[in-house]
Every structure is written in structure tokens, then in C-alpha cells.
């Protein structure tokens, strides 16, 4: 029973392409996140949704667009992929947006742009 | 702005021994939360332990415990009886009570377990 699942696990694509990463959580959580982990393992928040509403939108290129069709899903669409987009992207969820709620992470999607 | 520093890029420990991973942070807030997460080679980030700043008692979870020194702004993780499965990247994280409760992450410490 995977709590936070994201697909695909690996994504290899060429520059200029458009791709999507899907995320689903079955924990009944209200809040979902997208993080980017670079090659040095540094984690950076990209977006956060609470009850389908965007609450955190960090400085990321507008080529990245999150979509939350319902509370259990938060997908990430990336347009016009660039080499610098290569990274591991993590989806996460938490019970609520409060500070005490720990995050539950998916297994990550390794995106390689060639 | 808050910052989190993990000064040890890599640590190694003999199996069954005890190891301590350091984490310091900078903040002007009095209430906040601190977390340790583990990222094994499987890549998934897993919560190890959580500490509430207003609680003086150090959090413990089985073989994992923290040494929380609020005045020194230090939050170290102690792993007792290290096991091969403990090998992973360990990340310290600070969560403010404002700024949309964003998590501020340290750079991580790679823990190697020697059999």
C-alpha cells in the first residue's frame, strides 16, 4: 500500500519536450508538495497545495505548472524542458499545512534531459 | 532568514556502534519544529524523528534520539547500535511557524556503516 506514489520513476527526454509527472497520495492528507533535489542532494520547495489551493509558489520558471484536480493528486507539468531541469523531483504530502505535520514523500522521479 | 547547517558531509561508523550527526540552525523565533529525515539509496525520504522547540525533553524513536540544545541552536541525531540498513543521507530540517510553515533543509550528511 504505497502512501505517496509518483510516476514515472525515471524520465529521460530531450530538450524542448513537454513532460508530466503524476503524484497521488492515499493518506487522506490535505496538503501536497513538489520538491526538486539537485545533484548535490539539496532539496528545494517548488509548490505546495492545501485542499487544492496553491499556498506556496517559489521562484521557479513558469515552464513548471502544478495541477491539483483533487486533494489526493498533485501533478507537475514541465514545458520546454532544459538541461538544467535534470534532477530528482519529489512529491510529498502532509496531514495539514501546519508546522507540526511531518511530510510523507514519494520515491522520487529522476528526470534526465539530454 | 532561517538557515540549517550540517557540517559533516560524510560520517562513517562501525556496525553496532553509536554515531552522532550534527545540525545547527539559525533563527530568531522561539517556537518552531525540527525534523530529521533519512534518504536511503532507494531515494525515498523517510521521517526519522521530530522535535518541538517548546518541549525541553529530547525526542526518541527506538535507536534514534536527539540532543536538542535550544540555546545553542543545536539539534544532533544519535543513532545507537548502528545497523547496515541505517546507511543513508540524513537531512536536518527546520520548520517555522510563519512563512507558510516552509521547511528549511540542511545539505545532508552521508552515513556509511562499516560491517
Which regions of chain B contain 5 or more consecutive residues with pLDDT less than 50? none
* Multimerization state: heterodimer
- Greatest contact between two chains: A-B, 23 and 25 residues
Approximate shape of chain B: globular
Q: How do the SSEs of chain A run, as a string of H and E?
A: EEEEEEEEEEE
Helix content of chain B: under 10%
Number of strands of chain B: 12
- Tell me the series of helices and strands of chain B, N- to C-terminal: EEEEEEEEEEEE
> Low-confidence spans of chain A: pLDDT under 50, at least 5 residues?
none
What's the tally of helices of chain B? 0
Give the helix proportion of chain A (percent range).
under 10%
> Any idea what the radius of gyration of chain A is?
13 Å
Radius of gyration of chain B: 14 Å
- Name the beta content range of chain B: over 45%
Question: What is the count of DSSP helices of chain A, taking H or I runs of 4+ residues?
Answer: 0
Largest sheet of chain B: 6 strands, mixed
What can be said about this structure in brief?
The complex is a heterodimer of chains A (114) and B (115). Chain A has strands at 4-7, 10-13, 19-25, 31-37, 43-50, 53-57, 64-70, 73-78, 87-94, 104-105, 109-113.
Describe the structure.
The complex is a heterodimer of chains A (114) and B (115). With 114 residues, chain A is an all-beta fold. Chain A is 0% helix and 55% strand. Chain A has strands spanning 4-7, 10-13, 19-25, 31-37, 43-50, 53-57, 64-70, 73-78, 87-94, 104-105, 109-113. In chain A, strands 2, 4, 5, 6, 9, 10 and 11 form a 7-stranded mixed β-sheet that branches. In chain A, strands 1-3-8-7 form a 4-stranded antiparallel β-sheet, with no helix packed on it. The mean pLDDT of chain A is 93. By secondary structure, chain B is mainly beta. In chain B, strands 2, 5, 6, 10, 11 and 12 form a 6-stranded mixed β-sheet that branches. In chain B, strands 3-9-8-7 form a 4-stranded antiparallel β-sheet, with no helix packed on it. In chain B, strand 10 (88-95) and strand 11 form a beta hairpin. The interface between A and B is medium-sized, with 23 and 25 residues.
Amino acid at each position: 500500500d504505497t502512501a505517496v506514489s509518483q510516476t514515472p520513476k525515471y524520465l529521460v527526454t530531450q530538450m524542448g519536450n513537454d513532460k508530466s509527472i503524476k503524484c497521488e497520495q492515499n493518506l487522506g492528507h490535505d496538503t501536497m508538495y513538489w520538491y526538486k533535489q539537485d545533484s548535490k542532494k539539496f532539496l528545494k520547495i517548488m509548490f505546495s497545495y492545501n485542499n487544492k489551493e496553491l499556498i506556496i509558489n517559489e521562484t521557479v520558471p513558469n515552464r513548471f505548472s502544478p495541477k491539483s484536480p483533487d486533494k489526493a493528486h498533485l501533478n507537475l507539468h514541465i514545458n520546454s524542458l532544459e538541461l538544467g531541469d535534470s534532477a530528482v523531483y519529489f512529491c510529498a504530502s502532509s496531514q495539514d499545512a501546519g508546522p507540526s505535520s511531518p511530510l510523507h514523500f514519494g520515491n522520487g522521479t529522476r528526470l534526465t534531459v539530454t | 532568514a532561517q538557515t540549517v547547517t550540517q557540517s559533516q558531509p560524510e560520517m562513517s561508523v562501525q556496525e553496532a556502534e553509536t554515531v552522532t550527526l550534527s545540525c545547527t540552525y539559525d533563527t530568531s523565533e522561539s517556537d518552531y519544529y525540527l525534523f530529521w529525515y533519512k534518504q536511503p539509496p532507494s531515494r525515498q525520504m523517510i521521517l526519522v524523528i521530530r522535535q518541538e522547540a517548546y518541549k525541553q525533553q529530547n525526542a526518541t524513536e527506538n535507536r534514534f534520539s536527539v540532543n536538542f540544545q535550544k540555546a545553542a541552536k543545536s539539534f544532533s541525531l544519535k543513532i545507537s547500535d548502528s545497523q547496515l540498513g541505517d546507511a543513508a543521507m540524513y537531512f536536518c530540517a527546520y520548520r517555522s511557524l510563519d512563512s507558510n510553515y516552509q521547511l528549511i533543509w540542511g545539505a545532508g550528511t552521508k552515513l556509511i556503516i562499516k560491517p
